[in-house]
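Bumping with the actual sequence this time:
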Amino acid sequence: MPHTKTISLTYHKNRLFQRGRKANGMAQQNGEGDPVTLFEVVKQGKSAMQSVVDDWIESYKQDRDLALLDLINFFIQCSGCKGTVRIEMFRNMQNAEIIRKMTEEFDEDSGDYPLTISGPLWKKFRYNFCEFICVLIRQCQYSIIYDEYMMDTVISLLTGLSDSQVRAFRHTSTLAAMKLMTALVNVALNLSINQDNTQRQYETERNKMVGKRANEKLELLLQRRKELQENQDEIENMMNSIFKGIFVHRYRDAIAEIRAICIEEIGVWMKMYSDAFLNDSYLKYVGWTLHDRQGEVRLKCLKALQNLYTNRELFPKLELFTNRFKDRIVSMTLDKEYDVAVEAIRLVTLILQGSEDALSNEDCENVYHLVYSAHRPVAVAAGEFLHRKLFSRHDPQAEEALAKRRGRSSPNGNLIRMLVLFFLESELHEHAAYLVDSLWESSQELLKDWECMTELLLEEPVQGEEVLSDRQESALIELTICTIRQAAEAHPPVGRGTGKRVLTAKERKTQIDDKNKLTEHFIMALPMLLSKYQTDAEKVANLLQIPQYFDLDVYSAGRMEKHLDALLKQIKFVVEKHTDMEVLEACSKTYSILCSEEYTIMNRVDIGRSQLIDELAERFNHSVEELLQAGEEADDDDIYNVLSTLKKLTAFHNAHDLTRWDLFGNCYRLLRTGIEQGSMPEQIAVQALQCSHYSILWQLVKITEGAPSKDDLLALRRVVKSFLAVCQQCLSNVNTPVKEQAFMLLCDLLMIFSHQLTTGSREGLQPLVFNPDSSLQNELLNFILDHVFIDQDDENQSIEGDEEDEANKIEALHKRRNLLAAFSKLIIYDIVDMPAAADIFKHYMKYYNDYGDIIKETLSKTRQTDKILCAKTLILSLQQLFNELIQDQGPNLDRTSSHVSGIKELARRFALTFGLDQIKTREAVATLHKDGIEFAFKYQNPKGPEYPPPNLAFLEVLCEFSSKLLRQDKKTVHSYLEKFMTEQMMERREDIWLPLISYRNSLLTGGDEDRMSITSGSSTRCLKVSSHGLFCVWCRGSAEESVESSWMMRNDTLQTPGALQTPQLTSTVLRENPRQAAEHLPEQNSEPGSESDYVHKRGLMEDDAEPIFEDVMMSSRGQLEDMSEEFEDTMVIDLPPSRNRRERAELRPDFFDSAKIQFYEKKKSLFTSLCSIVFI
């Protein structure tokens, strides 16, 4: 193709337009290398956009053809096209021909173009591109746009480009057209305002008396009004051309980003010029697109509607739209895209603010429950809706007056009651922390009104107020605790957000102020609350969480020690009154917080704590003596006295060092007595085990923190050894809770006192290291098999036949998972021998839903420790399953049974865990095959050598690991296999020998990653995909027939087939799907712009990552027709005549060019020939 010379605008750095051009038509440049094309000027953005536009207008006034040529090339280059429109092309060719020419010159090597390229430069270019179009129209609005040449040319070009097959042309021209339309809407709005002003001036002048009326002014006003009307008509024609020629087709484009542009801009038009555009004829497009399958398009719809619903004056015009599409908007609050759901909730909130009657109770309830969403932005948006609907005070002054009459200091009493009722009515959700967090941003003043909450809990209701029920009081206390936590910690609850973020200075100050406020209030209120609810375990347990959020310095700084004494007195009373572990642990934690050494109140609290423990310890020792002396004659009072005090001491021993009271001795006596006599109550045994465990841990802490002597180490070793022996004996206890407690403590202590105890320069602690012997390991393993891997029926029977609800089942599963995790840690850290894991791995498939994650993580960690031993453990687990199957079904296995398939599936899953790096796992996989082969030939068939070994079927399981062998390792493993085979085995072809045949075949093939393997036979030919990326043909047949026939046709040497030569493919063009090709052809009877026309035109668009052969609208054609009937179409589309205007159909023949069809046919024939070469 001969070199073509181009013409383009040249811009100087001093903003002067370069008028002179060379005779050959080439653009001139200044000596400083400044940008010379309009595209480069806009891309770099160094010049003010208004000056760039002014220069272009100056050039247009001198030669409008050359100026328009530069503008055309600007749009072409902004699309990423390297071609340039020449002056003779512009003057002599139609737009369709120009676009076809530019399409041929488009660079197809890359799919990127300016609007899609990432980076700050191109992001700025998009902004400059849009600004240039807006400024261009603004500067031309008084003269040039009405010359019937410039705008007709630009609109005609953009309409043609928007119908292009090339995505870059379509995307860029659509954005340009929509921004052009927005600028024209602004011009139309100004014209409308000027018309109104002119009309008003005319009416004013005409209404004057005849003598004072200025006829010349009336004539000027009439002439101006006529001129403005003509301009208005011209602008409306232009807007109609863009809307009908571009928008109505591109808002349903196959590319989501193009659809999003259209919806975003129509929202701008409706807000900017609501008198013209805010009607059902335009709103229906936004309503239909609410069903778009792409989230970004739905998001643009919602944001466009938000801009409209924000203005309450527009609500009357939105009434019909609201009624028609309200259900869809409400349903979008549950959108799978969280960003869309958030904006949908905000839009529903705006609708609620504009008209409370617009939403039904059912609509509101659909949004209410979202305050419990785990996604915080969704929950916060729902919280804003809930606040607007339920918790916003309609008449604050009246409510404050009512509160004063009732003697309340806060007017929020009724709102807090309403919050409590809402929380209780949310029966499916019991997450008060989530509810508080959702309302925190919108209802913070209400949620921080702790004085009002305390008043409702402490004071008696006045006349006209209802008494809070017990359930309501519990809910209010729970909500109060959550608000305190939110204020003190200043971050969302667990499960919301990615973690604690760094607070800003303002947020940090707010947090400190809130913490001081709640501390000063509850230091005085908490003792009174505990006094009122001291007998209610649930309420007390919640109230005792409050001190952990205190600023404890306030006690000493504010001279509030008397309130501290009152708090300690109430806590002591609670400890004496309750035996519930939740309450006792809350008391223990509160003492632990108050005893922090950094606060001056520590000594006062420590004295109170010591007095309490002295009393409990003395009572415990006395009750233990009485219980042991009574023996089998002990009554319920003796048992209760021991159990109640032991529970309290155990709860405190968890957070406090009580070793100086020597609780281990009496606990050990209780355990030994229970083992010897077998009559110790279950709960006493469980608590004694736990208390002894805490005592050992506190002794270990003292030893590790100090410089222990040898006697101290030996003394602790004796204690640990005796306790481990007791726990091991408890594993055979008849009571399940005792066994589970003993098992967990055994696992914990074996982990703590393992070889890792001496790491970190602690070699002196070597005497404390315990290694479990084989008998203990077997007992632990048997416990796991008996109590973890059980069926649901067994589980129900183990709980005394009681019916379990869903919550109890989940709790039971949680306990079993903890048991399995505790034992798995012993395997991972090499405390229990790794082969013990085989009994766990074999249950991977059967119990995948319950324990799959734990078993998989155990497998991964053990492989990191020792790859070879882990592989041996895997094959051992498969061998165990195989042996169990042999015992159940006998030596003649049905290889098609579900049990055999289950073992093979488990082997396949194990093979997948080896990953893709065969070099790293090479030795481990080879060892696995070696052990598998030895197992298969371990026993001879007692019937004689002509019969297969009993375990030969195991080779079929072993086939699942053959793909993980390297090529050279396959030969080695095959050679090892032949050592176990006799000549008779090699000659056998019966079905009973198929496992051996299949395994040998898997070793003889080159492997999927190394070569193509062809299995010849009468019914099957398979060509596998090579690692070089060849196209493949996979002909399916009977797998067993192919394997059998290949072995029947093999020669005696059984040489591995050589790899076929890989032909070099010169093209990656795939044949077109005939069905899709048929969809490219439009129906002859469809009208341009109709729904059917759109369905077929989508086939003309370029291939994209999105499925373009599906309708981009979620609504069917029938639904669209129904919607169209509901809206009155007030638009009249009248395309203005122009020599460059053409119908959209003119571009269609370009995409079925005979030259292009011949090109793809050549590609198709090349692909067919290559496939034939591969088969030859």
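The tokens above came from a reply further down the thread. The longest helix spans residues 167-206.
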